[in-house]
Amino acid sequence: MLQSPIRVPLIKGNKTYKDVTEDILRPMINRPGKVWYLGISLSGSALLFGAVMIVWTIWHGIGTWGLNRTIGWGWGITNFVWWIGIGHAGTFISAILLLFRQKWRTSINRSAEAMTIFAVICAMLFPIIHMGRPLLGFFIFPYPNFRGLWVNFNSPLVWDVFAISTYFTVSLIFWYVGLIPDIGTVRDKIKSRFKKTIYNVLSFGWKGSARHWHRHEVVTLILAALAAPLVLSVHSIVSMDFASSIVPGWHTTIFPPYFVAGAIFSGFAMVLTLMIITRKALHLEDYITVGHVESMNKIIIATGSIVGLAYLTELFISWYSGVEYEHFVLLNRATGPYWWAYWIMMTANVISPQLLWIKKLRTNLVFTFCLSIVINIGMWFERFVIVVTSLHRDYLTSSWAMYKPTIVEVGLFLGTLGLFFTAFFLFIRVFPVIAIAEVKSVLKSSGEKNPPKVEKNEK
Amino acid sequence: MKNKKYITVVFDDEVPMLQAVHKIQESDQSIQDVLTPFPVHGLDKALKMKRTRIPVAGFICGAIGGLFGFLFQAWIFTVDYPLVFGGKPYLSVPSFIPVTFELTVLFTAVGVVSALFIRSRFIPRKKFEPIHDRITDDRFVILVDAAENEESTRSSLQSLLAGISNVEIV
To answer: In this structure, are B75 and B115 located in the same domain?
Structure first.
């Protein structure tokens, strides 16, 4: 139990273990405030609107979207990639930072993992709706059938099915296994008989035995070690949906690492957006400190710089390749009819994260909050630029076209935003937003309170 | 083992608890279990716990998943439904790798978690009687096996743990 004097404490206020339990459970046990009701009614309405639009799409068909023969992938796939990318930060925090023994992850991993799960649900909706006949969606799984057909295992679209369903399952398991000890805490603390019964069932009889903790820790480590390469594989495979085609602007070997960095970049932006609101709304400022925000901002600089480098590399390679179609696509992106999307992307993703080199801005919550939203928008436009501008003018000039989303597509996007935030609002009411047991385990080494004098163990 | 009598020793901090564990281990008493609100560093060593074999279970499940994933695709594309895609060979190993990898991860993850649940007997229960209602909050509890004569264990524990602060022997 050594305490380093140089490091800023991760948990502020002289907290005892009991304080930790009570502070984190308070937003669950107290009645929700006005902000919560306002938030959930806003996001709930967006969700409802999206649900209507889903029914509308399925009833009338994909013709209700702004897609045409040239641009077959519009907002739907843009949103899909965007949501999957957002999910990646949660796994990054819970898995990769766990393997690197970063203690600051303990305050944010629970909600970031929850965010992953909700984002992946939002993402999975889009390919399913995009099928046009979602009731036949199970065709994408290889199962013995009377048609004697199998899916094409050489296709990245099939890899995607496996990657995303595995990703969702593993993230869900990982999240739940981490939750079990905390559900035990909720069970022992909550007053209502009815809720106690429910949490009791959900806690699987957790009692905190040393042997259980030992196994729990080992399993968490294994899951982290699995999730780390998994998260890299998922967005690599998503990028191969594009990269393995021959469309100029998509056919790029740089895509997998570039997409993964972009995913973590946008995901951290979303984590920041959520965490800055959550800490304020739930009064968790002592647990999610400016130090946490700063650490996340550092990851944003790193991944944002990789994304910027990737953009520049793309530009360079398109010139260096000597392929005139490649020349044209990049020129058309920057100066063609969709120039505004390209420059929004460039400003938001390349220039804005560089501002975080300044410590004053990096530790400023209002600035960080605004920047996180700018980055979210920028990363959405990145996917839009990749999907739409590559397709709208490719080899055949006779098929050049423009694309504009209809209200149905906008509604679907709003609907997933609604779904995401509604799920998050419900989550903060039913489960502890911070991993209680994990915070307790770093409290002595990273809390503000000095550890009690340790007598030498006579061994 | 389950119904064996025990004496509950309650601590409000993990440091004295660990000291007590060491002391009890050295004496002729034996520890049935230690219940803590979070994983206490060094406790598994102090209890001389054997390392769990869950990783082995995970490896076996992962190997099954990987083999199954690869052989399934290979069987489909060479035996059951051979079809030429873009002039590639039937057994185009590189393009089978992503699905093989995903299935390996999936099987391992489900495998280790099932192993955890089965080995620790995590079953949804209707009734749960905690040994101490603050174990999941801020209390650390050692369950010491009680002898035939409970009082003798209790008194020997009292003398054993006399030097440690904030101990409560129930």
So the answer is: yes
